[in-house]
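Chapter review: from sequence to fold.
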Amino acid sequence: MQVRNWLVALSLLLASAAQGAGDPAAGKILSLICAACHGMDGATSLLPTYPHLAGQSEKYLLQQLQSIQSNERQILEMTGQLFGKSPQDLENIAAYYASLPGKVLAADGDAEALAKAQAIYRGGVLERGIPACAACHSPAGEGNAPAGFPRLSGQPAPYTVAQLKAFRAGQRTTDEGYGGMMRDTARSLTDGEIDALALYLQGLPVPQPGSFAWPGRFQFSASAGAEDVQAGAAD
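The token string follows.
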């Protein structure tokens, strides 16, 4: 199962996908109703269980909008929100939110738990068949836009917890086109690991160009490993 998942991931990483099909300007107008829950900037959600959309990849956003519209991904709060939207409308909304800057929150939590979360994110858990999250979502949590792997950096922890548990329970199946990778991975995670990963990702900052220092709630050294977590100055 893990070999199959990695083969799927590799093929997606190597494949190029068409980007930029949507019109951000048109999407901005269509997104006005979305702002009620996701914030005017796409990164100030009304509730922490709502995702941040700003800075997310266009391909991933479009996939999720299509899944929600078709009711493949059932979200009570989204019921009827995409009714009457054309395929081009969905592309425009996705392009708009992808054009906005993402926001990183504070990685509040127990330092030991966050260090363990970092170790899982970067290196996985070999003995339990858990792959490194960074392999698909990038070391900085930026995701992989051409492959359609989402940005995780800055997502509210309660939202990430809910999604990982939904994958674990088989209630969310939007990874079907990726060989069920998320369900396979989440199935082996404990509640404590999910909570810690969510808090870690909430404060995982994007590195600044030309620097190995990652500003934010935590800083990371150039070498991987849980022992490298250091408390850093908050932005």
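Two observations follow directly from the output. The CA atoms of residues 70 and 82 lie 9 Å apart. The longest strand covers residues 218-219.
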